[in-house]
# Entry
Amino acid sequence: MAGLTNRWAVLGLIFLIGLTLPMQFQAVPALAPFLINEAGLSYTDIGVLTGLFMFPGIFLAAPGGVLATRIGDKAALLMGLAVMLCGALLFAVTDSYAVMFISRLLSGSGAVLITILLPKVVTDWFVSKEIATALATVASSFGLGVGLAMAVLPSLAEISSWPVAMTLNASVTVVAMALFFVFFHPHKTPEDTFSRPALLTLDKPEFVLSVLAGIGRTLFSTGYVVFMSFMPLLLISQGMDVVEAGVLTSLAAVTSMISVPLGGVLSDRTGKPNHFIIGGAVGTAITCLLTPYFAPVLLWILLFGILRGGCTGGIMALPSQVLRPESRSAGFAIAAAVYFIGMAAFPAIAGYVLDATANTAAPLWFAGLLWILIPVLLGAFKILQRKWRVQP
# Structure
């Protein structure tokens, strides 16, 4: 069967692929109450297992970029999905923390290729054509996946068990793999005409700006993950039951489904993505800080989902502003490596903060700090971009 040729249809398929990763990533915090009660884990253990999913990317992002250039985007993405699926199924059949640890490393190893290639593939299809809109749409799959995990998995575990919930969660990956295998073909880009060594060569400005872009992606992603992971624990401490807390928290993801693509559209239409990045980041940070103290909590959860939408498209589009076609794979690999470092560390830090303070509001303070650092990061990126006069 011929592959998809319409870029918006391809975007829909990539969105589905993007949905599988956060559903696997967020499965552990979504099932945290069951893992704590039935497997004897601590909040720090939950934070470690959550962040561990991203740990392999610290070491595998650069080799993953090389592998993708050698075997192609489609084969590399299918490989990543298959490895991630194996790790999820291994987690579902054990109650040993050591095996859980290994399974999260395995799943995270597969997630490396997905994380690197999704923004790269979208950039190939949409560069100079609604790039912020397309990248924001794909990025919203992360928020939706996290929200679905938080809303659905506790309910599934409540009526069956956490291993069953984990297994059903993994089935989404199987569906995505099948559709991707049948319908996707890569978009030919100028980099296809360059030699392999050229793909691995970044000049100094591209390298530094790719690192900063990776930090930006890390801040808004981990700011979101920490909020979504620890908000249910705050609600439970205030007397709400596990399922209700998960569903209420997931409303942030529901509103994000509208706000994140809309933020990308407005960034493209107005040509002022920086305004949306700064406004969204500051507003989201304030929401994180106020949520534990002022009722109704529903208002703050909805505001969180709305305000974060301004950041996503602009931040995700930063690499496209500075990378040449021939350096795109390497640049996205560098940005992904930085992203993985933060995603591995920050959830674990949030869990440690909660254990150390015994205050369920503390992780939300930490999330607010991550969001408020985004305008600082953007300022550094823009200053260096102008200094070096970097254009794609």
